[in-house]
Structure prediction request, 108 residues.
Amino acid sequence: MSLDKLYYSIGEAARLSGVPETTLRYWDARGVLSPSRRDGKRRYYTARDIDRAKRIKELTDSGLTLEGAVAKLTGRSKIPPDVTQEIREIIALIGKIRGHKESGGLPD
Prediction:
């Protein structure tokens, strides 16, 4: 997907990043993203902002908290990469177990 515009509205940024508008606003309020503002109100996102939102979403979807995702992106993560991978694998395994349990494949 090519981002060829200089600025994108919050709706466009949400569509391109896969992050809901409400979440983008929340991340802005928390200082995780810093979109430009015009007239003091409207948020305008750059391709860089959209890329950062995608990366944060990927990390939070993999099980990291928002703070953990930001720390990882800024290089302040204290969790070694191999441990992070093990955590992802454990989370995936828990999901599979829950799926089997809900389908009646495992006893309570």
Notes: The two ends are 45 Å apart (CA to CA). Helices lie at 10-17, 21-30, 47-61, 66-73, 81-102. The CA atoms of residues 72 and 78 lie 8 Å apart.
